[in-house]
Amino acid sequence: MNKIIVLILLFVTFPASSQEILTLGECYDLAEENYPLASQISLLEDKTARELEVIQKDYLPKIDLNAKASYQSDVTEIPLDFGEQSLETVDKDQYRATLDVEQLIFNGGKINTRSKLKELEYRSQAQEVRISLYQIKKRINRYYFGILQLREQMALLDSKQEVLAERVDELQSQVKYGTALPASEDVLKAEILKVKQQQDEVESQLHTALKSLSAYIARPVDTTTVLELPDQGMYIQGEGSRPENEFFDLKEKELDENKNLLSKNLYPNIYGFAQGGYGKPGYNFLDNSFQDFYMVGIKLNWNVFDWGKVKEQKRSLDISKELIDAERESFNFNNNIELEEADRNIIKIQNMLVKDREIIELREGIVETANSQLNNGVITPSEYLTEFNNLYEAKINQQLHEIDLEMAKADYKVIKGNTEN
Predict the structure, then answer these.
(1) C-alpha torsion sign, points 332, 32, 421, 250
(2) Residue 112 within any structural domain of the chain
(3) Contact 184, 380 (CB under 8 A)
(4) Is residue 83 part of a domain?
(5) pLDDT of residue 353
(6) What is the pLDDT of residue 175?
(7) Which of 11, 152, 194, 210 is most exposed, with the fewest beta carbons within 10 Å of its own?
(8) Does residue 1 fall inside a structural domain?
(9) Given this model, what pLDDT does residue 76 score?
(10) What is the pTM of this model?
(11) What residue numbers bound the domain in which 183 lies?
């Protein structure tokens, strides 16, 4: 007997334990991971890694293989007479093959600066993608809390249908004993059919919302999935950090690194070089035979005077930085206004909920009286339905406002940038 009880308990509790539970934070994370735009970050990372590798190769020696064969119309002759001896004239056909090697010795740290600049460019571009992904959170709020509202509506409609069915049973008994007219029962049955229509409409909206949320988070979400209502009691106190502010910081760092690179462009470049080759003639133009030759040395390249070009370029970068500061100020200004509007919306909904509770309390008393009057034949079923529908309309409004309040708080946190709390 005990084994049977255990098996029954396991059977009953298994479906509940197999239900998937989703939180709002998990939906945020899944949406950001699976939204098509998210793949751009990894692509940008791969692209930057290859560009950095190319920049670092500037440290490696430059090796050139050159070959040349030529024939010229005239050559240099030295008109000197040494009697029986004479200087050999260089042939008009000449051949040369060389291997040239050039190694950077010093360039003022330009390569490292270019690498840092490339990394900052990647971080700025990746942050720009994150800003676009961040905007998805508001859409997730609409679907997530919309599903919760539709489920509450469905639950209240089910409750409404059950109460109406009970009233129908009571009226059937009254009709049977002649204390009520048959038409009274039909009025309530028609209302039950109307409730079923509303249930069908809400169910259709619910399936649409579930599919939309499922598409955004790339995970199946159905009627069995449990969506937890987040606890956001301290929504205002949380510290915020919008991704836009980090983007502005990165763009300013990028401009500073550009200025640093411009300064380093004023430094000299020092190279070591070597050349080895084989040809006719070699370095000795008086020797008209094929010969080996080589040369090693060091060279300097320095643009001593740039006519103030770097100075003007730096000034241009300073102006760009001022533009970023203006853009940051504009963003924060608009964001603060949006926060104030969101806060006022929260206060408005809180006040509505206070009135909702008062309305429901009054409506419940009215319906209780109407129910007694209906049973005693004082009022008609239509008059009873009017008060009954008013009560359930008030209950639905309260449930919608309660979830509206949590959605408004979630929107406030998204606007402020403290969705991690």
Answers:
(1) negative
(2) yes
(3) yes
(4) no
(5) 95
(6) 64
(7) 11
(8) no
(9) 75
(10) 0.81
(11) 19-72+90-416
